[in-house]
Design a protein that fits this description.
Layout (H helix, E strand, L loop, with lengths): L11 E3 L17 H7 L20 E6 L17 E4 L5 E3 L4 E7 L14 E7 L3 E13 L6 E2 L4 E5 L9 E8 L5 E2 L4 E3 L13 E2 L10 E4 L5
Parallel strand pairs: 1-12
Antiparallel strand pairs: 2-3, 2-14, 3-10, 4-9, 5-6, 5-8, 6-7, 7-9, 7-10, 11-12, 13-14
Length: 223
C-alpha cells in the first residue's frame, strides 16, 4: 500500500532523534545558496495553512531561521527549522489540525543538555506533513500519542532541554513521501523525509520567509 497524502494513517516512526540537533547559536550567517534554492517554495502567508506556534496576541523573536550556516544547515537536514526565543513555560500551540504521533517530556531544563535530551512533540497533519516542537520543558506536554488536536490548541510548554544555549522553541516540518514511508511495516524513516519550507498566515509582520532577529506577533485567525 502506498502512502496516501490525503489521509492520515497510524504508523511507527523510526530514527526519531533526527530532529534533535544543536541549537547553541547566538549569531548566524545565512547560507545564500540554500536560501536561493528554496526561496520559491514558500507559500504566501495569505495562502498558508499554518499559524505561529504560540497564542494569539503574544510576540516572540526569531533567533535562528532557515538556511543558516550554523545548526540550521542543509547538511544536517535542519535547513527549514526555526528557533523562537521565549521563556520556559510559554504555551505552545499546534500549527495546524492533526494527530499527536510522538511525545518526549522526561528530560530536565538547564540540566539535561545532550543532543538526545530534548523534550519534543510530533504532530501528523493532513497531507502527510509532520511538525516538530523541540526543547520543551520537563513534563511540559499536555497531550499524548494518538490525541487529535486542533490548530491553535495548546499542546505543551517551551523549555530549555537538550543542546540548547537559551530557552527557545525549535520548530520544523517534514513531508512524508514514498521514499521515506515503509508501507510494508507502516513505518516512517524520518532521516529520508524532506524538511519543507513553511510560512505562517497570522504572523505580523507578514512575510513568507521570516527574518532573523525580528519579533513576530500572532494575529487572530479562523481555526
Amino acid at each position: 500500500m502506498r502512502w496516501n497524502r490525503n489521509k492520515t494513517h497510524a504508523f511507527v516512526i523510526v530514527a526519531l532523534l533526527l530532529l534533535i540537533q544543536s541549537c547553541t547559536i547566538f549569531r548566524t550567517h545565512i547560507d545564500t545558496a540554500c536560501a536561493s534554492q528554496f526561496a520559491n517554495q514558500y507559500t504566501s502567508p495569505k495562502k498558508s495553512r499554518f499559524v505561529l506556534p504560540w497564542k494569539v496576541g503574544e510576540s516572540y523573536t526569531l533567533t535562528q531561521g532557515n538556511c543558516t550556516m550554523e545548526s540550521h544547515n542543509l547538511a544536517e537536514k535542519q535547513h527549514m527549522s526555526f528557533d523562537f526565543k521565549m521563556p520556559v513555560g510559554t504555551p505552545i500551540v499546534a500549527i495546524d489540525d492533526g494527530r499527536i504521533v510522538l511525545v518526549t517530556e522526561n528530560f530536565k531544563d538547564n540540566k539535561d543538555n545532550e543532543s538526545f535530551q530534548s523534550n519534543f512533540i510530533g504532530i501528523e497533519h493532513e497531507g502527510g506533513i509532520l511538525s516538530w516542537y523541540g526543547h520543551l520543558m520537563f513534563e511540559g506536554a499536555i497531550v499524548k500519542a494518538g490525541d487529535k488536536v486542533l490548530q491553535g490548541e495548546v499542546i505543551g510548554y517551551s523549555g530549555n532541554t537538550g543542546n540548547s544555549a537559551y530557552p527557545h522553541l525549535h520548530l520544523y516540518a517534514q513531508q512524508i513521501t514514498e521514499d521515506c514511508f515503509d508501507a510494508e511495516n507502516s513505518a516512517v524513516k524520518l532521516e529520508l523525509c524532506p524538511p519543507i519550507p513553511i510560512s505562517f498566515k497570522n504572523a505580523n509582520p507578514s512575510q513568507a520567509i521570516l527574518t532573523e532577529f525580528k519579533t513576530y506577533t500572532a494575529l487572530p485567525y479562523e481555526s
